[in-house]
Amino acid sequence: MPTLTLPLTRAEDGTQYAGVYSTVFLIPTQEIADLLARPHNANRVICRINDTVEIHAGLMPDGKGDYFMTVNKQLCQKCGLEIGDMVKLEVRPDDSDYGMPLPPEVAELWELDPEAREVFHTLTPGNQRNLLYQIDKLKRPDSRAKKAVQIHDYLKAVNGKLEYRGLNAFIKADNR
C-alpha cells in the first residue's frame, strides 16, 4: 500500500472546504488509485502517521480531481504536527464494517439486544460511524456502555429515524 510524504496544509489553502476543516493532507489521485479502485468502502482507509499513530480516516474529493484527509486539532497535538510539516503517511484499505473498530460495549449490547442491532443497521454508514465514534471516544468502559444503551434505546424509540437534536435531548434527560 502507498507510503506518502506530504505537508500538513491549511484547508483554505488547498480545498473548497475552508472554514469547515482547519488542517488537511492533500493527496494526489494517482498516489491512491489502487485504493480508490476497490469495490467496497473505497474512500475509507487506515493511515499510520509518522510511524506512530494509526487512525481510521476517509478520503474526500477536493473538488479539483484529487483527495484530502482531514486532521483534527487533537491529532495534530498528539503527533506534534504543525502547518507545513512534512509527514509520512502509510495508507492501507479499511475493510472494516463501519470504517472504525466496533466498540466492545456495542458488540456486547447487540448480543443481548438483537433489536438494537437491527435498528442500528437501518442507518446510513456515515450515521453508524458517527454514533460508534460518539461511544468509542469516551475513556471509561462504563461510560461507553451507558452511551451505547442510551443511543440504542433512542433509536428503538424513534424506529431508527435518527435526529441528532432529539438524540441529545434523550441522552440529557436520561442523565438527570
CATH architecture title of the largest domain: Beta Barrel
Q: Note poorly predicted spans.
A: none
CA radius of gyration is: 18 Å
Largest sheet: 7 strands, antiparallel
Give the count of helical stretches. Answer: 7
**Topology order in helix (H) and strand (E) letters:** EEHEEEEHEHHHHH
Measured distance between first and last alpha carbons: 49 Å
**What is the spatial order of strands in the main beta sheet?**
4-3-7-1-2-6-5
Derived structural class: alpha+beta
Looking at CATH, which topology of the largest domain would you report? Elongation Factor Tu (Ef-tu), domain 3
Beta-strand residue fraction: 15-25%
Task: Write down the oligomeric state.
Answer: single chain
How many β-strand runs? Answer: 7
* Number of domain modules: 2
CATH class of the largest domain: Mainly Beta
The overall pLDDT, averaged over residues, is 91
Give the overall shape. Answer: elongated
Helical content band: 25-40%
